[in-house]
Amino acid sequence: ESARLEDERRVAEEPGSSSSAAAAPATREEEPPDDFICPITTEVMIDPVMAADGHAYERTAIERWLATKSTSPMTGEALEHTFLSPSHMVRRQIREWQQAHPGG
């Protein structure tokens, strides 16, 4: 235990390591949660909808997908239906996260 702590102290004292170590967590904290990212666009969703596969997608992206396919973008399996339901809870969580992390 004390050897591990000594190693951590030594690394922290190395030139440049403390500033880069301090910057890395801040960057990660500003990353949106994975559930807020559309798996098709890889961007934060604005109008999230739930598909039959149980995954949330950006409405326009999944509508374009379903215009030519009847499979899940996530699993590749056939979807039982192509009805898309608004995901109000995910939308609210995204908005709350965006307000708490301006520019994030």
TrEMBL record:
Residues 14-26 have a biased composition (Low complexity). InterPro entries: Ubox_domain, WD-SAM-U-box, Znf_RING/FYVE/PHD. Gene3D superfamilies: Zinc/RING finger domain, C3HC4 (zinc finger). Residues 1-13 have a biased composition (Basic and acidic residues). CDD domains: RING-Ubox_WDSUB1-like. GO terms for biological process: protein ubiquitination. Signal peptide: none annotated. Residues 1-35 are annotated as: Disordered. GO terms for molecular function: ubiquitin-protein transferase activity. Pfam families: U-box. Residues 31-104 form the U-box domain. PANTHER family: WD REPEAT, SAM AND U-BOX DOMAIN-CONTAINING PROTEIN 1. This is U-box domain-containing protein. It comes from Emiliania huxleyi.
